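Friendly challenge for the regulars: who can give me the structure tokens for this chain first? No prize, just bragging rights.
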Amino acid sequence: MKKIVKLFVVIVFLMTFAAQVSAKQTLEEATDSITCILNNAKKGDAEAQNEVGRWYYIGRHFKQNYKEATKWWAMSAKQGNAKAIGNLSICYLRGQGVKSDSVMASKLMLKAIEKGNKKLLEQNIELAKEGDLFADMLLFQCYKNGIGVSKNQDKAITYLTAASEKNSVQAQRELAMIYLNDHKYPKASVWFKKASEKGDVLSTFYYGKMLLEGLGMKINKKEGANYILLAADKGFPQAMYYLGNCYMNGNGLIKNSEQAVKWYKRAAGVGISKAQWELAQCFRNGVGTSVNYNQAMLWYSEAVAHGYAGTFKKLLSDSIPSSPFSDYLHGMKAYYNHDFEEALKDFKKVQKAKISDGKIMTAAILANNLYAKKNFKKAVKILKETSESNPQALYLLAGLYEIGKGVPTDMNLAVEAMTKAAELDYGPAICSLADMYYEGRGVEKNYEKAVNLYQTALELGALTENAAMRYSSCYENGWGNLVPDKEKSDEIIKSGGKNYVANLLKLI
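First reply, four minutes later:
Bragging rights claimed.
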């Protein structure tokens, strides 16, 4: 919520204790009363804590101290005291004793009102009449969700409209979404456009989508695609996927399947399942990219893990039951089960269809120590034949150069092959090359290069478990010119190591 600069009227609604000082009390009685309340506060009495907070806030009995006030109110609020929660919300709104935070202020106010702080609600109603933006947004939430009042969509929209007219981007976006969901497209388009003009990415995307589809306005595919492009350039995931569709179908843009694949990759990397499916289709059919069954399998596995299991089963049974890709999947299932002879039969069928993935997996089996008839030299020969056009072949070849199997050990050639594979957006190669820079293995240690590669892998949705741990450590220690960030470090750990291929192969 937009930070409000104008002063907010101080709201401190407190119940006075029976023992509170009255005009007729003696000085000794008054002192005893203050001491009693303070002692009760220290013992954990929520009402007493709220009262002591008030004393510090207004400078009564103690020197005014906002930090002390918020400390006592926080203790009382933790126990659910509605008055203390409301008082604390004011401190967050005004930055008194705590760092100013309008989002926290709103959260606390809504909680206080929900717990029965009616005066806080009434005060905001009065402030809204005076044109206060914060109050408009707060009351919108109250009437939308029935907090302290009965749910009332019309009143909620009235307050949200008032906030939108005060140029709150959040309010404009929220109002546009309400109108969109209610199929009031002309109104939705007006507010999406206003918010997009202020740089709101979500609104930019939706306004572009409405132009593409002619919702609430005359259809304008070219302008709509330009808005989608703006949102995609700013990293909005859905916009990346839609932009891929625009390029793939020539919808508002010149048809360009290679550009479509580029945007599908970006959207797939951040978890858009539709993009994952489309990207898999592109790799399987060689649309906008070379045919690459390995990549197709990886992206089908991601899509299946995110809701496309039924669609994939139908693809196998209805569209490609006797295709080279089906042979490849059966071969991969046998390979995972270490049934190498059966796998070789399937991969031979893939080779006959002139698909390089069949040769590459044949080489992988020949270079596998678990295979009784392993032949590293033959594996190297096959990989060299396919490495010019296939990143997986380059990746496997790099590994053999590093360990000296089938070829003399040569770290320079290993790094060269791994770099080429990484430049072709092959996730395992990107992570392996990053590890090389992280360790200083075959190259000079360079955390900055490692970090850049780990980030690329993360954006492609290809960060391995080991790579995630190392990237996390870079954030934790501030390596590679990163600012130490424990929260980001923990986030990266959660994002790595996901591989759904084994689950996909269970469907075969």
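Residues 293-319 form the longest helix (27 residues). The radius of gyration is 31 Å. Your move, everyone else.
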